[in-house]
């Protein structure tokens, strides 16, 4: 039992990271209808910015993270302003590919500045642990879950109670009607990218915490957050969070029990498990658990 | 009619063009098959202009694997710099290292191989198992010898490859044998390896050791390279109550693995394959955990050990030619590769033939090559008679040492490792 | 034989739809084609650098795969990130069909067999994948890459697992052994032989695709791309054409994979990653989405660029080249960044790719000296 609880805890911590990334995807998708493949690059960049502020500029860790989050938000908004705005009205394929192109540029910028060697982010959590019965809770994971929870609460409050948040929901619901009400679609787009960049940075920091864990490869986590987003439904923030947790916990349980239960599936099956879950759910619900069914107009 | 003429032409061509690929661009100049006289100065051939011998290195000099490729190539370079200073091959021929960047991609490696092949007498380094395997068919066709920069066991029986060092399997066998004979009798032993050819090599050694030492693996876990989450694997190992875990990984993942283990409070005896270590780990927040738990199985001695002739020479060469070079396992590897290639070239000069085929033939008549304690001595010769070194050195983590590794047991050789058979692929 | 005399018209003039659709345009186009054929036949006599020949060989293989992807993405409008999976499928199929330890089939049979295998797997997966559209399709085909890699790593009997497999196929056609070619009393190297084999197939596949897209099925595909609902209304069976395009595209990918395996004589699962898929998409973007010509030009440009950059990298300031060299950016990083930049710049400034640039240049000279 304690093993199961332990796996579930690890899965939740992992899922919280996926949720942060997936939420970033969903925000951009709702506002602009684009899946942002560059999210992984923004995530890694955010983590490296936090590293640079902490290590090079010698800021305290908390301040460094806040600074990096703000900077990542600005970078996200600037990307939208400079590149993506030119792509309005282009086919989905073209826009997706532009974000892939940006991913390459971001990755090379990162490695040209910071190199490929694994670095220590400088987080205060280290390898400290808290014991709850037989279950070992790593401080870093507790913080991750805490940060993700706080961000999600803030996020939903923002969409429900703030004027900008409501404007963003209105734009997502019906862009033309929102425009007619005097809502600036441009502003909504830029803010969406900004929020998404900030979320990516937080996800990056939680991923890069720990000994020698900051490397350019951490952006690859975005590839697993894709299934999380699809499972939840492309345009549903609640879905993104649930999808992240589902994928995280399934993955942790798969690694934990694979040897006993389905060794035949091949070693390291957990790496493809997110995609298997995604395909299974899509076969039953083509628009994910909470996604809006696409209406085809003739 | 036509086709039979074509056949005849093809047959004639095959007879004439024994030198290999033939083709409009062949610069082999008939040196291949012709009998060279012993003791005579070798004729000029592709890669040798009468004074200078050119050898190639196909290595990832940029990209993620450059962390390995750069020090390794620098090891090649500094060895040849020092050799040239001493006079060169046979005291008169200088060696020039020609580097090409493969970016760790097999297709790029094949292209770069094609760029260099008519410009060098041999390849002193080809880095990356996939790259070596992609280039190997062409080495065979062109009758060129190349030195792979990894410790896979199937290199041993390939006539066109010139490996150095004891294979990964041997490291695993020696490491586990040492553990079992030093208090590990009856303990629960497990393995954690990365899911690729390198990981499988380590796992093969672990399985062989399990059979020979009569223990049962309590758990065998795999992980995907560069996967940032190995919690599940570590937990499975903890669940199996492993007392010792043999680890086959690369440094970028070792950090993640040991970090995860430390945070889950799992502290078995870690026994790591030589490439799983990098000295930065010795300075990370994990250093106390690592000092308590980690052994690394490698070859030779610790960096800067003056009592070993080869190490003394290498450190002196580093200080003379590139003082910026930090202590580095991969650097030593490249330096040893240079030594092996120099031995082959000496032999080829002695036989009076520096053509591709001549160098290949020289490698078969080489016999034992001594590495002066840097790596174990290697017996070359016909592929089926080659004997790789069988002893390993067990290191423990020691932040005070130059590469953060201190010797625990030098040149340990188990009985089990002598029974391990190296098969062709 | 018709009695009506066909009057000679100026090369630029088309007088009927048939003129627009014909395969080899006007006299000038025919001349151009002749020049290409001559270049194809003659190049190995003059180009003896094994490096550039191998670059061209890889580019030709990429061109075949890109033609397949362009059929699916460019002509039918379905985004697939799973192309690398089918390339891998073809390479492993070639190892099984053409290897001496396996079936040891002759060249035409293992090539065709690999392609048919790709078509079958594509036809099997297509109906599930193509229920989804746009973004969903992109992500599901991305899943194909991960599942494929897992299979390639774990089906050890067939794929050799992580350490990969030798692809030791025969390459003999009617007495010509492309691996060791002897023609007109001269010997040709492996790279020269494969140049003829690969680029001959590029020509064949290009002809096939061109014919497909200018006839009825091709128009149906383009109708699906432009407005699927409207296409359905005018009687195009959406599902059938989408799956058909997916299957043919997969078949061409497998053909490219089979050639890749045979040329390289070895493949391992590391090669068939998402990056390979993205490379193919970049090829058709840079070359020109929805053009046959563009797929080939794109493959040549993206295949040759790294070689060129590398050659001149020493003279670009701030680029580090050797093991001891320091610079702001490494050749690898520069290559990758340029690759990304090309995708972005083409999509933002010239979404129709180099093919459109070429058409514009051609149009300019047609009307020269009148530049309007």
From TrEMBL, chain A:
Pfam family, one: BPD_transp_2
Keywords: Amino-acid transport, Cell membrane, Membrane, Transmembrane, Transmembrane helix, Transport
Top-level taxon of the source organism: Bacteria
Keyword Membrane (UniProt): yes
CDD domains attached to this UniProt entry: TM_PBP1_LivH_like (cd06582)
GO molecular function, one term: transmembrane transporter activity
GO annotation, biological process: amino acid transport
UniProt similarity note: Belongs to the binding-protein-dependent transport system permease family. LivHM subfamily.
Entry protein name: High-affinity branched-chain amino acid transport system permease protein LivH
Species of the source: uncultured Solirubrobacteraceae bacterium
